[in-house]
Design goal:
With about 425 residues, this protein is α+β, with helices and mostly antiparallel strands. The protein contains 18 helices and 21 strands. The strands form five sheets. Strands 2, 3, 4, 5, 6, 7 and 8 form a seven-stranded mixed β-sheet that branches. Strands 1, 9, 10, 11, 12 and 13 form a six-stranded antiparallel β-sheet that branches. The protein has a three-stranded mixed β-sheet with strand order 16-17-18. Strand 19, helix 16 (about 375-385) and strand 20 form a beta-alpha-beta unit. Helix 3 (about 175-180) crosses helix 5, helix 6 packs across helix 8 and helix 7 crosses helix 9. One of its GO terms (cellular component) is membrane. Pfam families: CBS (PF00571), MgtE_N (PF03448), SH3_actinomycetes (PF26205).
């Protein structure tokens, strides 16, 4: 069956959703979108799936591998089983958009201008970045009498007006702000968030999904991270910590009261809390406290093509994508014997069928967990790298340290709050 890259949301209703193992997870009951003003991309956030036990859960679009004519297949079996609850800035296509009234200004359909039109369906399309976005809207003009079928018109999304981040009608301020956040970097969202009045900041943060809030928290100073985390209920706080990088979660927990940090660690999934606990065991001024336990770790039998495919993961920070680390099994940290590393540039110059074990750089000296931050800085300056392996004394890979994490700790504690040019008031943004 051919993969679908463009489909009307109404066609997805009732469609079976299968996991990577082909087991049925449930059926689609709605499609959730983020509505932006005309000339901005309005993204499809995910689908609401009703499981066999009648619980409705949310599946992000990036978890979807393929949409086929009869079913949807997931790329990952890891899904959140929490009941779906809509947030501000999230609009349900079937439940809220279809049937609502809009107006259009499509120059090819000028006879529809200034007329209220009813939305019949929303067309969504996969983009080059594998996101999904609203592309066109099917609308109905005046409904005919005596049961005749109405005339349908398909309008490009940028010519449709009257839909807002809060749904239809008048714009909702919080929803519009959340919609703007969709196209912003997490660091810029963090800056905007802290310019808001405290009550609005807390309200908006509570409407961000766990993954997005985790990304934003990681771009704040640790004091502000702790301050915002304290406004969440204890279970939500644990969920957000699970979505953070382990090194950032460990730093944040270190800012909290010890008793509360222990409670949060207990509430976290054991697989997510284990690496955080390990990082918290290292002295704060050592490489061990800076490293991430989740770099690109491969077995010797991995091909260059497979390694490059993993490095393309858009969720992987650029620094960590620059290098792969090859070990004997097990490949989960702490790994088996560390064999060496391969830089991304070297893999790009090798045949795709080559094994990474044949192009190792075994001579690059590693960092050790008890090395100081100054040692790490000298390492990066000496070898012109942005990522380096961290080993224990027995030659097992514990993780990797990235230069951005090192700089974060070498700069003053409040550097994120002060901005890039804290003392330059004359220079304006282009």
């Amino acid at each position: 069956m051919s993969e679908v890259t463009r489909v009307y949301a109404g066609r997805l209703a009732g469609m079976v959703v299968r996991g990577p193992d082909t087991d049925v997870i449930g059926r689609v009951r709605d499609v959730i979108v983020n509505v932006r003003p005309a000339h901005h991309t309005s993204r499809v956030l995910g689908v609401v799936v009703e499981m066999t036990n009648k619980r409705r859960i949310f599946l992000p679009m990036l978890r979807i591998g393929t949409i086929e004519p009869q079913e949807i297949n997931l790329v990952s079996g890891s899904v959140s089983l929490r009941s779906f609850k809509p947030r501000a800035g999230e609009v349900a296509v079937l439940g809220e958009i279809i049937g609502s009234k809009v107006h259009v200004d499509d120059p090819e359909l000028d006879h529809l201008h200034s007329k209220p039109l009813e939305i019949a369906d929303i067309e969504i399309e996969r983009t080059r970045t594998r996101d999904w976005a609203i592309s066109r809207v099917a609308v109905i003009g005046e409904r005919p009498k005596f049961g005749r079928r109405p005339d349908l018109h398909t309008i490009p999304w940028n010519h449709v007006h009257g839909l807002y981040a809060g749904g239809t009608g008048l714009p909702d301020e919080a929803a519009e702000l959340l919609a703007e956040f969709e196209d912003m970097r997490p660091a810029d969202v963090a800056t905007v968030l802290y310019r808001l009045p405290e009550n609005q900041r807390v309200s908006v943060a509570s409407e961000l999904d766990d993954e997005r809030l985790a990304d934003v928290l990681q771009e704040m100073s640790e004091d502000r991270q702790a301050e915002l985390l304290e406004t969440l209920d204890i279970e939500r706080a644990a969920d957000v910590l699970e979505e953070m990088d382990p090194d950032d979660a460990a730093d944040l927990l270190g800012e909290l009261d010890e008793a509360k940090a222990d409670v949060l660690l207990e509430l976290m999934d054991p697989e997510e809390s284990a690496p955080v606990r390990r990082l918290m065991s290292f002295s704060p001024d050592t490489v061990g406290a800076l490293m991430t336990p989740e770099p690109l770790i491969l077995s010797p039998q991995t091909t260059v093509a497979e390694a490059l495919a993993l490095a393309r993961n858009p969720d992987l920070p650029t620094s960590l994508a620059s290098m792969v680390f090859v070990v004997r099994p097990p490949t989960a940290t702490p790994t088996g014997k560390y064999l060496g590393c391969v830089h991304l540039q070297k893999m790009l110059r090798e045949p795709p069928s080559s094994l990474v074990s044949g192009i190792l750089d075994p001579d690059l000296p590693p960092l050790y967990a008890d090395d100081s931050q100054e040692t790490a800085a000298r390492f990066f300056a000496t070898y012109n790298l942005v990522c380096g392996p961290v080993l224990d004394d027995d030659g097992h890979l514990l993780g990797a340290v990235a230069v951005d994490d090192l700089l974060d700790h070498l700069l003053p504690d409040d550097w994120r709050d002060a901005g890039i040019r804290p003392h330059d008031h004359k220079r304006k943004e282009a």
